[in-house]
Design brief:
With about 100 residues, the chain is of the alpha+beta class. It contains four helices and two strands, in the order ββαααα. The termini are far apart. The mean pLDDT is about 75.
């Protein structure tokens, strides 16, 4: 049985490839997501795609962006930046 179907659609002069995907999600989550999609006037597929794009792009954040975004409100003592960054990265990613 072939589950993946590929559709080719012209998206603003760029050919986009869509693949059908089957997910197992609780009924409650699906209903809430459908309601959200309706409110935003987009399809559920578009809502899921945008979410997946967003979380995929979060991992591409540069170290400098990470440091600026997570900078403490209080100035850190000179020479402690690397230690603080190392601790934050360990908290986020473990090991």
């Amino acid at each position: 049985m072939h589950l993946n179907k590929i559709y080719y659609v012209d998206c603003k002069k760029v050919t986009c490839m869509f693949t059908k995907l089957t997910l197992n999600i609780s009924k409650t989550v699906i209903e809430k997501a459908k309601t959200t999609a309706r409110k935003r006037r987009v399809s559920l597929s578009r809502l899921v795609e945008e979410y997946l794009k967003r979380i995929s792009e979060e991992n591409k954040e540069s170290v400098v962006s990470f440091m600026i975004k997570n900078a403490p409100a209080i100035k850190t003592p000179d020479g402690k930046e690397k230690e603080i960054l190392r601790k934050k990265l360990l908290q986020k990613h473990g090991s």
